[in-house]
């Protein structure tokens, strides 16, 4: 895909930035209830009621009366999407996920915060297109490890061992540009916007720059005062792990099989270093790889012992390499999964069905990807008086 086509696709998706989610269902009319952390009050506007509770901020979708009648005539039960979202709402209260977060958290303390993050992400994308991929990966690596608390951004000091030095962080880059975003925010509102929220908001805007859906994200996270480098191997699955173990790791943060398959769709963008590929190529080629695709990979990675510092890599998706879309799943069905964890999705019973569904329907993929990324972005955040708001994302505040 040429750059003009890529840009056109990105702009088309960017138009959806003011919508919350892509259509959750084409069959059912819906009404929405938002539960937010503010004093109790409610208001009605047409058929929509927004109730504000003190328990946590979640979205609950209910079919309208007419939609329920249509489902009864068709012999169907409760809307699956409704059941899932109600479950998310319930589990959020008991697990404490997302507690203290809300939409537009900085509306009074730093009204232009989200606008500034978006401006800087767009500017960096135009200068260094791969930064958009980095923002998405940052969210995954930060939020999968204990908490969405920007511990990932801490650099090594006498008192801290950086998570960036772990094997699981191999290939991550562009951390220096987080400082660019932070500097712009500090200039506008000193010591106000957390680095953890920068990770979340930059990931949201990064997805849009990569042609994906706009995902509303609550803010109000605070920053950790410590690194979690000692538990990275436990929390972040390896690309060579069994799919059952990968599913277990995601399940531990409230993400089920369907949404795990959707999250792995982020592998539709970016690239993978040969260090992480040679295990499938040498001494013999993994038989699950398409023969022609194997020839391409061997050409990209001609040695079983690649230099980690060399520019030796393969694109995750050769068709639409800088667009988050369902081409990833189409490739899997043709045995062109780049990593072992990718290709396993097709052969594992509890994930294969979702690969097929997402390969056939890009909108369905976007729906599930949006929900999965939102869940991940709210994994046990530090809020209220916990943690701090770092002045420099690389270091804990002095004193």
How is this structure best described in words?
This protein has helices at residues 3-14, 65-73, 80-95, 113-127, 131-143, 176-188, 195-209, 232-235, 243-251, 257-263, 291-300, 327-333, 340-347, 349-360, 362-377; strands at residues 30-35, 41-45, 48-52, 58-63, 271-273, 313-315. It has 399 residues and is mainly alpha-helical. A hairpin with a 2-residue loop joins strand 2 and strand 3 (48-52). Helix 4 packs antiparallel against helix 6, helix 4 crosses helix 7 and helix 14 (349-360) crosses helix 15. The longest helix is centred in the first third of the chain and has 16 residues, at 80-95. The chain is globular. It is an enzyme of class 1 (oxidoreductase). The record marks 137 as: Transition state stabilizer. Disulfide bonds join 110-189, 143-148, 195-393, 274-301.
Summarize the structure.
This protein has 399 residues and is mainly alpha-helical.
Topology, element by element:
Blueprint: H1 3-14, E1 30-35, E2 41-45, E3 48-52, E4 58-63, H2 65-73, H3 80-95, H4 113-127, H5 131-143, H6 176-188, H7 195-209, H8 232-235, H9 243-251, H10 257-263, E5 271-273, H11 291-300, E6 313-315, H12 327-333, H13 340-347, H14 349-360, H15 362-377
Helix pairs in contact: 4-6, 4-7, 5-7, 10-14, 10-15, 12-14, 14-15
């Amino acid at each position: 895909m040429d750059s003009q086509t890529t840009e056109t696709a990105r702009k088309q998706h960017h138009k959806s930035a003011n919508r919350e989610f892509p259509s959750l269902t084409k069959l059912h009319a819906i009404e929405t209830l938002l539960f937010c952390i503010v004093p109790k009050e409610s208001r009605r506007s047409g058929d929509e009621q927004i109730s504000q509770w003190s328990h946590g901020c979640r979205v609950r979708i209910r079919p309208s009366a007419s939609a329920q009648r249509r489902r009864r005539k068709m012999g169907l039960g409760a809307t699956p999407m409704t059941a899932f979202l109600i479950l998310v709402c319930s589990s959020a209260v008991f697990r404490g996920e997302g507690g203290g977060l809300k939409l537009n958290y900085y509306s009074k303390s730093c009204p232009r915060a989200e606008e500034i993050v978006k401006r800087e992400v767009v500017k960096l994308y135009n200068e260094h297109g791969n930064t958009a991929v980095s923002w998405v990966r940052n969210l995954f690596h930060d939020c999968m490890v204990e908490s969405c608390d920007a511990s990932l951004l801490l650099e090594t000091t006498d008192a801290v061992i950086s998570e960036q030095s772990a094997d699981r962080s191999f290939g991550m880059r562009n951390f220096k540009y987080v400082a660019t975003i932070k500097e712009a925010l500090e200039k506008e509102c000193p010591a106000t916007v957390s680095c953890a929220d920068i990770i979340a908001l930059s990931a949201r805007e990064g997805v849009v720059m990569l042609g994906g859906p706009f995902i509303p994200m609550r803010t109000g996270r605070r920053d950790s005062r410590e690194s979690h480098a000692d538990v990275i191997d436990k929390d972040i699955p390896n690309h060579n792990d069994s799919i059952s173990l990968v599913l277990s790791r995601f399940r531990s943060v409230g993400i089920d099989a369907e949404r795990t398959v959707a999250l792995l769709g982020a592998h539709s963008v970016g690239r993978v270093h040969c260090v992480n590929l040679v295990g499938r190529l040498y001494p013999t080629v993994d038989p699950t790889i398409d023969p022609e695709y194997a020839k391409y990979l061997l050409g990209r990675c001609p040695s079983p012992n690649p230099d980690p510092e060399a520019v030796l890599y393969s694109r995750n998706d050769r068709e639409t390499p800088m667009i988050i879309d369902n081409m990833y799943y189409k490739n899997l069905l043709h045995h062109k999964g780049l990593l072992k964890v990718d290709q396993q999705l097709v052969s594992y019973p509890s994930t294969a069905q979702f690969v097929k569904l997402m390969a056939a329907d890009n909108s369905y993929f976007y729906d599930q990807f949006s929900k999965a990324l939102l869940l991940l972005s709210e994994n046990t955040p530090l809020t209220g008086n916990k943690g701090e708001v770092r002045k420099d994302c690389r270091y804990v505040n002095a004193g």
